[in-house]
Structures are given as C-alpha cells and as structure tokens.
Amino acid sequence: MKGSANPGLAVAIAALAAEKRAVGYKYDAEERVLARFEAFCRAEFPGLGTVTRACAEAWLAGGVGGGVGTLSARNRWREMH
Description:
- This protein is mainly α.
- The chain is built from 4 helices and no strands.
- Helix content is 63%, strand content 0%.
- α1 runs antiparallel to α2 (28-44).
- The N and C termini lie far apart (28 Å).
C-alpha cells in the first residue's frame, strides 16, 4: 500500500489485520480485499482523505479499477445504509 494518497487508510487496514490475527483470525483474504479497496480509492479518488459514501458505492458497483461489484455485496451495503 505504498504511495497511498491516504496513508491513514493503509495504516488502518494493516492495524485491523494485525488485530484480527492477534485474536486468532487468519485474515489473509480480507486483507487482500481491503488492499484492493485502498488501491481503488487511491486511483479513482486521488487526494481523498477518508473513505466516503461515493468511493464505497463506486467500489461496490465495480467501477473503473474493479471492486467487489457483486449483487450480494451491493445489497449488504444498501442494508447497512
């Protein structure tokens, strides 16, 4: 996650993964997905200082650069908000 426009996001992802591993989760696949999300935000929303609804929805919709883009993921996002 080097070169992130928002190093705080990369740091938060690493800290979350470390915390999950400390309590026994493998958290490998999840960390890879979060790293792809961070790269997507960096590429598609340069200079963004935080995760916004717009970047999260673009990611979920499978916008330029990819995203999870699955119907179930989009539905989960909508249920949460």
